[in-house]
Amino acid sequence: MTDIDIALPAEWTKKREEAQHSTAVVEYQHETADDTTFVVSVLSKTADEGVKLRLSAINRTSTHVRHDYPVDEYDTVDNAVEGAQSFIEMFSQRIQEGSISEADPEIEAIRETIETFRGERVFPSIGRLLRRFR
Q1: Contacts (Cβ under 8 Å, ≥6 apart) of 74
Q2: Entry pTM
Q3: Strands 13-14 and 24-31
């Protein structure tokens, strides 16, 4: 059984099941004061693809602009949930550092964060340990 109740940074919450995307196993969100919502989704495995990890940046103003970014793909839901936790930690740190703006997140800054995260998967334990000491 998959444990989807992971340790999240204070500003993140697990979305209620009825509010989740239809193909999501679980979603975690961070609503900012600047009308932006970040959602990290673990999406169900399909016949020809693995379990996907996706980031969405949603502007809640009247235009309701949404950008979806594929983050990674996993063999199991357990691994994807663990990946979501690691990605959320890294993403939150980038927001705190100012590398990613809560008010107006730049596509390039988000892509760079995703690429860095994927690169750290080569040595996931070391990457996770280093992020904790930053």
Answers
A1: 50, 51, 52, 53, 80, 83
A2: 0.82
A3: antiparallel
Structural contact between residues 15 and 39, judged by C-beta atoms closer than 8 angstroms: yes
Task: Please check whether residue 55 is in contact with residue 40, taking contact to mean a CB–CB distance below 8 angstroms.
Answer: yes
Please, which residues have CB within 8 angstroms of residue 27's CB and are 6 or more apart in sequence?
A: 14, 15, 19, 20, 21, 39, 40, 41, 42
Note the pLDDT tens digit of each residue in 24-58: 899 999 999 888 999 999 998 887 888 999 999 99
Q: Which position has the token pair 């500003």?
A: 11
Tokens matching residue 132: 């904790």
Q: Kindly state the tokens that stand for 67.
A: 């950008």
The DSSP result for 35-51, as a single string, is SEEEEEEEEPP-SSS-E
